[in-house]
Design brief:
- The complex is a heterodimer of chains A (about 150) and B (about 375).
- Chain A has one domain: 2-Layer Sandwich (Nonspecific Lipid-transfer Protein, Chain A), CATH 3.30.1050.10.
- In chain A, a hairpin with a 4-residue loop joins β1 and β2.
- A five-stranded mixed sheet of chain A has the order 3-2-1-4-5.
- Chain A is of the alpha+beta class and about 150 residues long.
- Chain B is mainly alpha-helical.
- Chain B has one domain: Ribonucleotide Reductase, subunit A.
- The chains are: A alpha+beta (about 150), B mainly alpha (about 375).
- At the A-B interface, α5, α6 and α7 of A face α4, α9, α11 and α14 of B.
Chain lengths: ~150, ~375
């Protein structure tokens, strides 16, 4: 049983909140401007959680329909199990361990893939990769996140 | 007494000021009287501060298709008299511009990092000797080739008309990025009891070919689109190549920089082709040659074998894991490259001599990238 409910928008809102409380940490990495989607495949449907990053913040988290999700710079697509395993690894290790970084996962593409129509949008996955990783690594501080006002 | 306008007030001050210095040299107060250039602009800072896009307002934001002067005078300033010709040969916007260049400049400035401070050097684990040798060979080659992406912009920047200063400023950040990459790769080769290993002619031939490109647009096709695109994918593969989290972080940080350079190159080529379709053939000719050299480089004896060794995790799995992963990496590299060519408006699918079938490239996924990416 995973620590995280990856089908619940609250998880992504909590991660965004955590990021928005850590501006000094993210300032070291620099501004990041991208719109990306976490696509979570359940047996019935795919949930598209769209996140808008601007400067040092994650400004918006929304559950969007599939046709809107295509307009993002890129989508990270994986099953509930894959996303849960990734977040569990982050939680267990305080940050993603080697094979569970988002870049490792997307590179292999067998569990989580990075998809998009525009190579320039896809390249933003590379341009802002460390910011995205540190955003996800916020799940390693779940207790802290959940205790924040 | 009626209140003076700002201009009248400044003129009155200028009239009262001395015409000569105490040493007898003539003084010119024309700047105080005003100039034909646009006065009174007041760009508003955006939330992140005052960006280059914020100040691209009014006539200051108008980037001419054809530069009228060849001086270093700032775009929008009033130029009087004969300024010396600086020898610029890239005097058209389509020679150097990309529509994302201001954004990329700001991004580059905001996302600088330090190879000294931001890499956890004291956490480098002791590695088996064979793995350390492979790591050192990979970083020897990377340290060698990274500086080409500094040398090449430097070779062309002083030939770029100053009206396109944003493009020049972005290339300055690229030069800094490449200095940092050379630094971080060299530091890694030396930092764990190893050192620099082999440099061979295949790599040098590729570098020389890029450096000797006849035009800047050919040079940027070879460097930004082809060369850096390939290196970007190697950095992405760093997650699988790197034996420890230290090298992984090195690759991830360098990857972010490299992706900016590729983004500039892709969109510059697109701008160039859209505004001067004749350059398409020039770009194709460069890429015909470059693809051949890059294929040779990618399979060269030192870098290629060291990569396969690390991808396999050592001797035991080099054949059943290392080489297959290397093939997978090449498939990914060529797919990304061909997709970016589509995006740049210079489709290579009908022209390339690359063995697409042998590489396992799905052309149907690449075709039409530009159409869906508008």
């Amino acid at each position: 049983m995973s620590t995280f409910d990856v089908t619940n928008i609250k998880l992504y809102e909590d991660l965004a909140s955590h990021m928005n409380h850590q501006s000094e940490h993210f300032r070291i990495l620099g501004d990041a401007d991208m719109t990306m989607v976490f696509a979570v495949q359940t047996p019935d449907k795919t949930l598209h959680f769209q996140l808008v990053f601007s400067e040092l913040r994650c400004d918006a988290v929304d559950l969007v329909p599939a046709d809107e999700a295509h307009m993002a710079d890129f989508s990270l697509v994986g099953s509930v199990e894959s996303w849960s395993d990734m977040f569990d690894d982050i939680y267990a290790n305080g940050g993603a361990s080697g094979p569970w970084t988002i870049n490792s996962l997307a590179l292999r593409g067998d569990r989580i893939s990075c998809e998009g129509n525009d190579p320039m949008g896809l390249d933003k996955f590379s341009r802002f990769n460390q910011t995205l990783q540190d955003f996800l690594d916020g799940a390693g501080r779940l207790d802290l996140i959940r205790s924040q006002p | 007494m009626p209140k003076l306008t700002e201009a009248e007030s400044n003129n009155a001050i200028a009239d009262r000021l001395p015409a000569m210095t105490p040493m007898g040299q003539p003084l010119d107060w024309a700047w105080l009287r005003g100039a034909p250039s646009e006065w009174g602009v007041r760009p508003k800072p955006s939330a992140r501060g005052l960006t280059m896009s914020d100040i691209a307002i009014g006539t200051y934001g108008e980037v001419p298709e054809q530069a009228q002067r060849r001086s270093m005078a700032g775009r929008g300033s009033t130029v009087e008299g004969d300024a010396p010709d600086m020898g610029y040969i890239l005097n058209k916007k389509s020679d150097v511009w990309s529509d994302n260049v201001r954004e990329l400049y700001e991004e580059a400035v905001a996302r600088q990092w330090s190879a000294t401070r931001d890499i956890p050097w004291n956490e480098l684990p002791e590695l088996p000797s064979d793995i350390e040798h492979a790591v050192c060979q990979v970083f020897t080659t990377l340290a060698e080739i990274e500086m080409i992406a500094a040398d090449l912009p430097a070779k062309w920047m002083w030939r770029m008309n100053h009206d396109y200063l944003e493009a020049k400023m972005f290339l300055c950040t690229q030069i800094m990025d490449e200095a940092r990459h050379t630094e971080v790769f060299r530091k890694r080769a030396l930092s764990n009891g190893g050192g620099l290993l082999y440099s061979r002619s295949s790599g040098e031939s590729l570098l020389r070919s890029i450096l000797e490109a006849k035009t800047y647009t050919q040079a940027t096709a070879l460097l930004h689109l082809l060369g850096e695109g390939f290196i970007l994918d190697i950095f992405r593969m760093g997650e699988l190549i790197a034996p420890s989290h230290v090298e992984k972080k090195i690759f991830r940080m360098a990857m972010q920089d490299e992706a900016r350079h590729v983004a500039y190159g892709t969109m510059h080529l697109r701008y160039a082709v859209e505004n001067d379709p004749d350059v398409a053939e020039e770009i194709h000719e460069a890429l015909d040659h470059g693809e051949l050299l890059l294929t040779t480089f990618g399979t060269n004896a030192d870098f290629g074998s060291a990569l396969a060794y690390l991808l396999g995790g050592g001797e035991e799995h080099i054949e059943d894991k290392g080489f297959p992963l290397q093939m997978e990496m090449q498939r990914h590299q060529f797919t990304s490259y061909l997709s970016r060519c589509e995006r740049a408006g210079i489709s290579r699918l009908e022209r390339t001599k690359l063995p697409l079938d042998l590489l396992g490239i799905d052309v149907s996924k690449i075709r039409g990238t530009s159409a869906t990416a508008a």
